[in-house]
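## tool: complex_structure
## caller: assistant
## args:
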Amino acid sequence: MARWGDGQYLRAGGMVAVAIGVCLVVRPHLATVDIAMILLLSVVAAAARYRRGPALLACLLSTAAFDYLFVPPYYTFDVFNPSYFLTFGVMLLVALTMSGLTARIREQREIAHEREQQSRALCALEADLAAAEGADALFAAAATHLGRAASASAAIFALARPDDAGEVPLPNVPAFDDPAVRVAATWAWTRGIATGWGTAHGGEVPVMLLPLRAVTGAAGLATIRPADPAIPLSSAQRATVEAMAAAIASALDRHLLAQQNERARADVEAERLRTALLSSLSHDLRTPLAGIETSASTLLDEAAPLPAVTRHELLASILDESRRMTRLIGNLLSMIRVETGMLVVQQLWQPLEEVLGVALLRMEERLKAHPVTTHIPCDLPMVSIDELLIEQVFLNLLENAARYAPAGSPIEIVAQQDGAAVLVEVGDRGPGVPAGEEERVFERFYRGGRAASADGGAGSGLGLTICRGIITAHGGRIWVAGREGGGAAVRFTLPLIGVPAPAPAELMSC
Amino acid sequence: MAAALPLVLIVEDELHMRRALRATLVGNGFQVVEASGAREGLMQASGRNPEVILLDLGLPDLDGRDVTRALRRMTTAPIIVISARGQEHDKVQLLDLGADDYLTKPFGVAELLARIRVALRHAARPLTSLEEPIVLAGDVMVDPLRRQVFRKGAVVHLTPTEYRLLITLLRHAGRVLTHRQLLEQVWGANYAAQTHYLRVYMTQLRHKLESDPTRPRLLLTEPGVGYRLREPSEA
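## result:
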């Protein structure tokens, strides 16, 4: 805004001086009117380039020079021919018109430039707001942009809407230590109007308090603190700040709505889990329990002595049903852990072979009707797994294979390295998974059409759900596939990330 | 028979579990003394001098670690921890504190009796002396004096570490050894946290001694806890 100091007057004068010089040189060859044209040119040039003041100076200088040097009588300001007044008048008019035109063009260019800057700042803000996850990140991103737009430091505080008494619960931070700021903040917040520095409601408050109100409810209050409150906010900056406040408020709205949706979805999911659990508890647990109770009371009934064979049968069924309940409760607990995100995974480097061995040993009785083959290359890298959880995956997969594949049919377990993961397959020769059900089998309590299994006992419908939860928690994938020659294959991957510290000397040999 | 029946102390707060344990043990030739809580258990342990202690992991009145420490101060009788599934971490702590073995509920009678028998044998002969050649499951024979191992009659070449690992397990045959215990005894105290060393060597040992390493008959894994060499008599 330094009108005098920027040298425009000097340069305008210089342009006229050059024109005068040229005129002096060419004077012998030109008519006086032509001289006027040359001088007029310098006026036009100055008017086109500089503001109105310097343009007027050029006009006056060239008019004076024309009169003094080139209009007879020379070297006086007297004028013999009155028609030269017309020339002076035209020169003046041209200078004024030109400088007016250029000023308007320049103004428009500046406005365009400001608009461009503003929209660029808004775009950057929107991009950052869209990328921000959570209200805190959103506020932080918004504060950075607000501060930049106002050439100040900005911060945003989450605030609830004022209560009925109009009390605004301002956060207990140094920004609000100044009582004037507190008053202004309350005023701004209750009225929803920007207050303080750089606004129409400035007062002596050195900070701008900019309320950000979202339609959905909660919102925030931005404080914009300039380095020097004496320097006002330009109108362009103010426009940018206001536009930003609107953008931030609507981003807040989007964020809050997304949060509400997420919560609603989680509620629905939790409700479904509850319903599923309830039906499982009421049916799947009560059935074996009823069997146990009946068997036990029959055994205790001394009025009707039982033959030894029957007694043994009843005792065996009590044992069977108890084991079934144990398995079911274990599965239910695992499922709840998986589905509520309470699964704790303690990964350690270990050979897959060992975990598989534990599962095979525990399933020995269950699997005695099936020849089980394993193919694990002895140079298979160690995997970083929670052995108890991966053991459970194997147990569930083997349990399914034993349940659905006909007696005598083989079960094959293959593991191999597949890029940056270990790929494991447990395959059976059972009826396989019906086409189109490949994803549904992982839904909890899915029993599909397979409820009537080879051994007559229904599963809990939780095995694969738990497997997926466990494998996902290990960063792997699990899916079912058909097998050439019939049967189902469940495949899962365990990522190989990082490597364990090497064992000392005497290394593994195949 | 002059020798009295071995006395087992059952420290278990759950009445039905205690009743079942008592019935099983009495029926299998043991004397039983019961305690329904940790404090009572400690009193019985010092007063009655049991030969084996069955200690439930989740007693309400005292922390299992404190009970184990206290028991270890008053008696060398083997402690067998009875735990539920999912308590591996607590189990390992008690084993490292001096408990001898563990059982996971629900367990069968055979398993319970096997654990008690092993515990009694180790108590009678601390650190099984290794002189005579021993035949193990899977037709494996160890000749400690000549430091040689045979499988189906053929010599198996073990590295010094593999041999030390096998012998350590053999000295405690039938008993669980935690990862830490094995690492400290075979590699030294500095290696106590390097469980993957142990796993690599155990895998190697299985490949050399087991006919099917994915279904070990001799070198058993106790998931989340450690390893156990199957007792020769169990084979």
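## assistant note: Confidence is low (pLDDT under 50) at residues 450-456 of chain A. Chain A touches chain B at residues 322-323, 326, 330, 348-351, 353-358, 360-361, 364, 374, 376, 378, 382, 387-388, 391, 413, 500-501, 503-506, 508-509 (CB under 8 Å). Handing back to user.
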